[in-house]
Amino acid sequence: MHIERLAGDILRKLHREYPVVAVTGPRQSGKTTLVRTVFRDKPYVSLEDLDEREFAREDPRGFLARYPDGAILDEVQHCSGLFSYLQTRVDHDSRQGLFILTGSQQFGLLSGISQTLAGRVAIVSLLPFSLEELQAAGREPRTIQDLLFSGLYPPVHDRKTDPGIWYGNYVRTYIERDVRQLIQVRDLSAFQRFLRLCAGRSGQLANFSALASDCGITHNTAKAWLSVLEASYIVYFLRPHHQNFNKRLIKTPKIYFYDTGLLSWLLGIETPSQIVTHPLYGSLFETWVVGELLKARLNRAQEPRLSFWQDHSGHEVDVIVEKAGSAIPVEIKAGQTVASDFFKGLERWETLSGKISGKGWLVYGGSAHQERSRWHVVPWSGIGALTREV
Questions:
Q1: Considering the entire predicted model, what is its pTM?
Q2: Best label site of 119, 188, 221, 275, fewest CB within 10 Å?
């Protein structure tokens, strides 16, 4: 059964408004399937194909001339020289929706766009499935442990492949290859160790010096490797909230993995049942919720506008979502029973933020919805109620 992507609606809209639409995101997130489904009438060419890539590099005018009514150009970051020719082409053709571009690396795709296609292109970032997309197709995992373990990459659900085998191949086939292409990594074993150390820190403040020290690399190398992981949509940096209520806020970002299936594999988790008692269960759950909030915004082609709030006294709120002049606080707890101390961070935030605060949300690992006077309380399976609001 086909799993419909929520980003399809915004793609159709932008296709009517811009001459070029670019879809970016991690490898295997479903970009090609999405654009070929939405734009069935467009010719399709993959620049992963060496013959096509050579043609595009050696004769970009001739390459584009084959597509008088535009085309889907897949993995276009391989031919950055095409961008200036695309600019000339769309500047001389008044039609919208001529070319659909896809790319898996922010470095190649977005830098080329910003230099030559600024103002002519709309960008949509496509992450792996959201829980809401799986639920709409009747394909959602039974338990939160199953969900965290399997992650949300399309091949795991479309082909029902073994997550442990698939994510191992994903690391070797895509992540390590991208790292070699983008920066010269001489010691691949050190990079593998670094990747696993990052996994153990998902949901924590990003301490570059500690990461470098633990891995036996320099501080600058750690920053370079993290920038590649960020550009390849493996990790995401959640910035601290800018509102300065008491002059003593944390200023370091937090690091999160985009997908918990990959994170589980890197942590050495081999079955869903291991997750319940794993010391990083709370981090896995928090990582998943942050990922769902990111998808909700990106599937509408909106800036994420997510941050976290934490002061030096230990008060914190896991996510602050800025929307329409208000700041909506979201607290995340993996526990299956709602406890009063779950709301401490939300109460402190509400006291300090005053009028800018929207009604707060608690997402937890249980099964019951609760509508309280001051908070929305939703179980993991009901997170769609939150993601539709943000």
A1: 0.94
A2: 119
